[in-house]
Amino acid sequence: MYTATNATLRELKLGAEDKAGAALARRLAKAIDEEMSGRTIAELGRALLATLDALGATPAARKAIVAKGGVPDDGDDGAAAKRAKLAKLRAVEAGRTGTG
After folding, report:
1. Which of 19, 41, 64, 91 is in the most buried spot, having the most CB atoms within 10 Å?
2. Could you tell me which residues come within 8 angstroms of residue 33 by beta carbon, excluding any fewer than 6 positions away?
């Protein structure tokens, strides 16, 4: 686990503000490698996943990261439909006021 975690953290190119989180992730991964108890491994695994998530190193975290000026992928919560409706209303308004 340590080797994979360390490789992932190196790829992230984290800043100085993330050093503590990265150190925690490495420590948790090393503890998982050394642990024998399945229950403890599960607990450490949850902690490691949460730490990696906070650092943007999980698929869910990467999906939530939005490029500057971008729009997050809101999934199926209706946000896409709301944006489409807003665009349509803006187009109608622009046509009515001659600004489009």
Report:
1. 41
2. 1, 2
For the stretch 49-62, pLDDT in tens is 999 999 999 988 88
Q: What is the 3-state secondary structure (H, E, C) of the chain?
A: CHHHHHHHHHHHCCCHHHHHHHHHHHHHHHHHHHCCCHHHHHHHHHHHHHHHHHCCCCHHHHHHCCCCCCCCCCCCCCHHHHHHHHHHHHHHHHHHHCCC
Domain extent for 96: 69-100
Burial pattern 15-44, b for ≥16 Cβ within 10 A else e, equals: eeebeebbebbbbbbbbbeebeeeeebeeb
Same domain for 89 and 43?
Answer: no
* Together in a domain, 60 and 94: no
Dihedral over alpha carbons 61, 62, 65, 67 (to 10 degrees)? 180
State pTM to two decimals: 0.64
Task: Say whether both 60 and 73 belong to one domain.
Answer: no
